[in-house]
């Protein structure tokens, strides 16, 4: 089976769950994707990823994997490499883009090398002896700063440090999730995200920007996933020039990192209108409160069509490379 026939005649495995700290969000994403695929007429099953994955893929005769995994093990190239090894096409970005996109330090290094604006900062490794004053002085930082793990999503382990007394606790929290803790300048202003949908042999589709208005200005885990806690404005009420600028920055970020399928680029925009790229998500959430479906709906793409477009990214990459990856 090749091309579209692989999707219509083969079985789709929605890979979800896993063992990362984003497991519960992944399960919600996977369940919603599975329902949409079934309503669209696909033969789809859910698979909670664990140590028996290889056997389950064989037993279920999975032809294509729809990746609904978040966090380490799902977005970092690990599952992508495994699926390439066993020859199963999968949705979204490949091994390299996934690995780079998951590690925020690497992402920033690559983007900065290509002239894409990112916040200044530094990395503090677990166990490294570096005083608070040394850290801030070396990166030319001032309070407040943001401290976060290098390889986590959903704002897990992130602290906005407003005063010196919070420093040690913030570092300890970040190091609980990753060996590398990022310390960045806090960028005041608007929280904006731009979602992208890859299209075969075409420029990716940039969906309308979403402004995130979170309680206390911090879009943390509860603000993301508790209904009604955060206000979303789509399309974001930005001047046309800034809207075009961040759209182009999002497209450049997607292209520089070599992404495929769906992705989401998160920004902070200063009160003077200067944007900074914070990170890219190569497996954006697809829950009922997620930003990608919200932006797609604004562009006239309903949830089922969005799910189908992401599914087709597996075949698009396979036809371009000549193999599953």
Structural account:
By secondary structure, this protein is of the alpha+beta class. 38% of the residues lie in helices and 23% in strands. Strands 8, 9, 10, 11, 12 and 13 form a 6-stranded antiparallel sheet that branches. It has a 4-stranded antiparallel sheet with strand order 4-7-5-6. α2 (23-39) packs across α12. The radius of gyration is 19 Å and the shape is globular. The two termini are 16 Å apart. The model has no long low-confidence stretch (mean pLDDT 90).
List keywords for this structure.
alpha+beta, 325 residues, six-stranded antiparallel β-sheet, four-stranded antiparallel β-sheet
Q: What's the main sheet like?
A: 6 strands, antiparallel
**Poorly predicted residue ranges:** none
* Range of strand content: 15-25%
Mean pLDDT: 90
Please count the helical segments: 12
Order of helices and strands: HEHEHEHHHEHEEHEEEEHEHEEHH
Total strand segments: 13
Q: Work out the helicity level.
A: 25-40%
What gyration radius follows from the Cα positions, in whole Å?
Answer: 19 Å
Spatial gap, N to C terminus: 16 Å
Overall shape? globular
- Structure class: alpha+beta
Write the layout of secondary structure elements.
Elements: H1 4-9, E1 11-16, H2 23-39, E2 43-48, H3 53-59, E3 62-67, H4 78-86, H5 95-102, H6 104-113, E4 121-125, H7 132-138, E5 145-149, E6 159-161, H8 167-177, E7 180-185, E8 190-199, E9 202-206, E10 210-213, H9 221-225, E11 231-233, H10 240-257, E12 262-269, E13 275-281, H11 291-298, H12 303-321
Parallel strand pairs: 1-2, 1-3
Antiparallel strand pairs: 4-7, 5-6, 5-7, 8-9, 8-10, 8-12, 10-11, 12-13
